[in-house]
Design goal:
InterPro entries: DUF4935
CATH class: Alpha Beta
Protein name: DUF4935 domain-containing protein
Pfam family, one: PIN_12
Strand content: 5-15%
Number of helices: 10
Oligomer: single chain
CATH topology: Rossmann fold
CATH architecture: 3-Layer(aba) Sandwich
Shape: elongated
Keywords: Coiled coil
Length: 238
């Protein structure tokens, strides 16, 4: 299930296409999108598009993640799905009250339309999130990722910081850097992006002095904050 960095990079350089390294929150955001105002519903269509493009000829894309992300995604999937179902029921109760009020005001019964819970949205989006994980190349954790992650924690380098270790996030980011460096060493010239919505720990990608800037510049890579943005990069729009 988990693949060595060299093996992943060899496959990518044999069939070059833009590389997107997906963080945990990015994969789970397709489930959060319908009920969180901070997440665009376009994340869902972007996920569908990227899955279709994965492994295809030009434009094509390589979706990559790592063992740590897979573990975090597995541990949090049910909780995020439950949140969507809970919020959907809350919205349905509110909509029912509003329609009842309209019926009273106008003195007649109005059509309610589809009930969200009957459309099984959470199941469809869970499957979409699973697909993102399934089609991604999952990099194996190696000792250097863990050692470098601990060094980030000690030095308070993003995603770590004063008072927050974020050891797993550091391990994920070190895996990304390893993939990026290895690809460049092998002569890969395409786009390489780290995709995460976690701006609290990584800083905003549009900040002039983003804390990841120097490391990203060293491997000619980018940090983008959503699947929609990542898709735009793949399609040459971002």
């Amino acid at each position: 299930m988990y693949i060595e960095v060299d093996e992943v990079c060899a496959a990518i350089t044999a069939r070059p296409a833009p590389v997107l390294f997906l963080d945990t929150c990015t994969i789970l955001d397709v489930l959060r999108a319908p009920c969180r105002e901070t997440i665009a519903v376009e994340e869902i269509s972007a996920a569908l598009a990227l899955i279709r493009l994965n492994g295809q000829p030009t434009p094509g894309v390589w979706l990559v993640t790592n063992e740590t992300v897979h573990g975090e995604w597995t541990a949090n999937l049910d909780t995020v799905k439950t949140e969507l179902e809970r919020e959907s029921k809350k919205i349905e109760r509110l909509r029912s009250r509003l329609v009842d009020a309209v019926d009273i005001v106008y003195g007649r019964t109005h059509e309610v339309g589809h009930r969200i819970e009957h459309l099984k949205l959470s199941e469809h989006l869970e499957n979409l999130s699973r697909q993102l994980v399934s089609v991604s190349q999952k990099v194996k954790i190696v000792e250097s990722h863990s050692v470098n992650a601990m060094n980030r924690v000690i030095r308070c380098l993003a995603p770590a910081g004063r008072g927050k270790q974020e050891a797993k996030d550091c391990q994920i980011y070190e895996a990304f850097l390893d993939v990026g460096r290895t690809l460049r060493t092998k002569g890969f010239a395409g786009s390489i992006c780290f995709v995460t919505a976690n701006s609290d720990d990584y800083g905003k990608p549009t900040e002039p002095k983003n804390p990841l800037g120097a490391e990203l510049l060293a491997i000619n890579a980018r940090y983008v904050g959503s699947l929609s943005w990542a898709l735009a990069v793949v399609e040459g729009r971002g």
